[in-house]
Amino acid sequence: MLELAAVCLLAVTQAMSGEAIAEKIANRIADDERTGQITFTLRDSKGRERERTARLAVRETDEVSRMLLLFDRPANIRDTAFLSFDYVAPEAADETWLFLPSTERVRRIPSTDRSGRFMATELTYGDVKDDFKFGLADYDFEAGGEKNGRLVLIGTSKSPQVARETGYGGFRAEIDPETWFPMLIDFADPEGEPLKTIEVNEVQRVGDSWTAKSFEVVNHKTGRSTSVRVDDSRVARGLSATLFDARDLDRAGSQLP
C-alpha cells in the first residue's frame, strides 16, 4: 500500500511546473524551534581529514527562518558565530552575520559574498543560509521529469550577476515528493561547468520540520569534500530571543545549551 501511495503521489506531482516545485521546497513546513550538534569533517584532495563542531539553534516561522551556528572546536575558532535570517517572501532581502572572536566584531555578510566558503568547508555562506531551499528570486525553474521515484528540478541563474553572487550558474536536483527535500543537487559554476554535488544520505523529522541528518559535499574542481552530520536534534521551545540578535552574537556561547 505504501508503494502504491508513493506511485500515486509521484504521478500527481509530475504534472507540476518547475516554479511550483521550487515553491513547495521553499515553503516546507517550518514552525518549530530546535537545537542540535553539527560535525563538519573536511577532507583535502589527498584524503587528509580535520573536524569542526558547532551547536545549532533554529527558529522558523511562516515569514522567516533564523539559524545560529556556534563553533566549539577546534580551539582556534571557538565561539565563532554565524547567524542568518532567510525570509520566505522572495522580495525580502535575507540577512547574514559572522562574529569572529579574534576581532571581537560582528560582520554583516553582503549578498554579493554568498559564494564565499563557509568556515573552510565546501559549503558556501549561501548554502548554509538557504538550508536546502532554492532562492525563488535567483533562478528560473524547469521541471525535469522523474528519476528513481524523485522529481527532477532544474534551475538556471536569472542573470550573470546572480551567478557571480551565488557562485552557481545553475543546478539539477532530485526532490523527494513526500518531504519536498532535495536529496541530490548537482551545481554548475557561472560558466556552466560541473562544480560540486551535495548528496543527502539521511533526513529526519524534528517536530514538524524535515531536516538533513547527514550529507556529503564534493567539489569536482578541487577534489575536496565535506561530510556533515547533525546529532541530538530536538524541539527546543522558548529559546532566548537574544540568541538570534546580531548585536548579541558575542554572548551566544553562554545562552545556547
Automatic annotation (TrEMBL):
Write down the InterPro entries for this protein, in alphabetical order: TP_0789-like (IPR033399)
Per UniProt, residues of the Uncharacterized protein TP-0789 domain are: 65-251
Domain of life the protein comes from: Bacteria
- UniProt KW keywords: Lipoprotein
What Gene3D superfamilies does the record tag this protein with? Lipoprotein localisation LolA/LolB/LppX
> Which Pfam families does its entry note?
LolA_like (PF17131)
UniProt name for this protein: Outer membrane lipoprotein-sorting protein
Q: Name the source organism.
A: Parvularcula lutaonensis
